[in-house]
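Quick one: structure tokens for this chain, please?
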Amino acid sequence: MTSMLIRSGAAIVLAGLAVLAPTVAHADAGVHAGAGVRADAGVQETRVFTGYAYENSPKEAKREAEKRARQNALISGFLNEQCVLLYANSTRLAPGYYAGDAAINCTR
């Protein structure tokens, strides 16, 4: 009987904390917003762009794939300075024929 009372008491305490948790979170956001700091000031747009190419050498395939990924980023409004190369790979498909793929991550 005693263990049942302890369990129910613990359940009531946890339920009370669960009810108060959203209130504390809103109060914390209100303090920061009231201090003149925007809550979404740190939000940035980040996107990943990919490019593919087929060329006669692995170096050309990688370079062309990265170029196409950067072109996709430029079309979407990102500058080259806002983008970082994630990877550039090449695969041999046949003698003298290579596929290249690249991805870049852009943030503004």
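Confidence is low (pLDDT under 50) at residues 19-33.
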